[in-house]
Amino acid sequence: MSTRPARPVAAGAFPRRSLLVAAGALPLLGALAACTDPPPGADAVTPQQEDRLAGQVAVQTELVAAVDAVLAAAPDLAAAVPAVLDQCRDQLRRLQEAAPSVTGSPTTTSGSGTASPAPAAPVADPRAELRTRLTTAADSHAAACLDFTGARAALLGSIAAGLRGQLVVLA
């Protein structure tokens, strides 16, 4: 076997391989530059968006109350899906943190909203009732997501997706 002699590199010149590697890294550097923090005020909320976000907090508050009531009335279902209520409460807390004008503690379980009120008595099919409540809230959050940009849109979208994920557990 014969080996090729290495070509001498002129002083101050880049070897061809180094130049190709550097050229390949340019798109990565551009992508990293795009991941910087947005300028101040880029994710500002309009008064209409504040109202919409407050409405979503109310929807989630109603969901927490409904899930709590359904699971209290059906202990066997509560044992089968223990994380549903905790997830709904955590989502409510995150929504309240994102809503600048909404006050109240994350564990609040009452409030007014567009969701129907929690059942007062045990329901015939608690699993179906829970699926209905989760679907209604997920639909509401997904629709509201379209009215926002940035972090709040991502939050509403992730909450809607999380609620839909609970539907799979309840199937």
Description:
By secondary structure, this protein is mostly helical. The protein has a domain at 47-112 and 121-170. The chain has six helices and no strands. Helix 2 (47-73) runs antiparallel to helix 4, helix 2 (47-73) runs antiparallel to helix 5 and helix 4 runs antiparallel to helix 6. The termini are far apart. Residues 98-124 have a biased composition (Low complexity). InterPro entries: TAT_signal.
Sequence-ordered SSE layout with sheet pairings:
Layout lengths: L15 H19 L12 H27 L1 H6 L2 H16 L27 H20 L4 H21 L1
Helix pairs in contact: 2-4, 2-5, 4-6, 5-6
Keywords: Signal
InterPro entries: TAT_signal (IPR006311)
Features of the shown structure:
about 170 residues, single chain, about 65% helix, mainly alpha
| Sheet with the most strands, sense and barrel status | none
Proportion of strand residues: under 5%
Radius of gyration (CA) equals 26 Å
* Count of DSSP H/I helices: 6
In short:
Residues 97-126 are annotated as: Disordered. This protein is an all-alpha fold and 171 residues long.
